[in-house]
Write a structure and sequence with these properties.
alpha/beta
């Protein structure tokens, strides 16, 4: 209700239920732990009331996504990038179910200890060959990797935004794409 009021909306088009089952961040403890089925029941009721349009999941496990499918999931938002691809099975399931994949940290981790795309030698080499930035290579790779990817890269200014948008026009030859696909996942699991 507070979100609807502050946004001046009758319905929020999509609400992501952040599970905190995986990825960086705080973990629920004790009475903070709420069963996924109970949370989905509330989200489904809000959707049925017309207060939200669709349900998304954020920081969810593969098992959690499987359990949530009957509720009608529109998107999954998990940490995922060229250098952190531990959720490939979940990405495949999302693709098969027609669920949008919305990677947060699309250029790697913002926390100490998490790999960054801009430090990856394969991304740097591809960027030099294509006369773009390693960040643009990382974003372009995500768009090439799966057709259901919706990017939400951060930006601080208009020039950075333009660079993010321009990443969509980058094409990779087969050799470059194979090299990028072969980058090992170094996701880590930082808990703050």
């Amino acid at each position: 209700e507070a979100n609807l009021k502050s946004l001046g909306l009758d319905r929020i088009p999509l609400v992501n239920l952040r599970r905190a089952d995986t990825g960086p961040g705080l973990r629920p403890e004790g009475d903070q732990v709420v069963d996924l089925d109970d949370q989905l029941a509330v989200m489904t009721a809000l959707r049925d009331e017309g207060k939200i349009g669709a349900i998304g999941l954020s920081s969810v496990t593969l098992d959690g996504l499987r359990r949530a499918l009957p509720a009608g999931i529109a998107c999954v938002q998990n940490a995922y990038s060229l250098v952190a691809r531990d959720d490939e099975d979940m990405l495949r399931l999302c693709r098969a179910e027609g669920i949008a994949w919305v990677p947060f940290f699309p250029l790697g981790g913002a926390f100490a200890g998490l790999a960054k795309v801009v430090d990856e030698p394969a991304a740097i080499a591809a960027a030099q060959a294509l006369n773009v930035t390693p960040a643009q290579v990382g974003l372009a790779w995500l768009l090439h990797h799966a057709p259901n990817v919706l990017l939400i890269p951060g930006t601080a200014d208009a020039e950075h935004l333009r660079g993010n948008i321009d990443a969509a026009a980058i094409s990779f030859d087969d050799t470059t794409l194979a090299t990028l696909d072969a980058v090992p996942s170094r996701a880590g699991d930082i808990v703050l």
